[in-house]
Amino acid sequence: MASSQKSRRRVLASAPLDDLYAYARAPARRGRRQPKRASVTWTVTDNWPNDVPVTDAEVDVFEAWFGDLFDELFEKV
Question: Which structural domain, as residue segments, surrounds residue 70?
Answer without folding.
Answer: 51-77
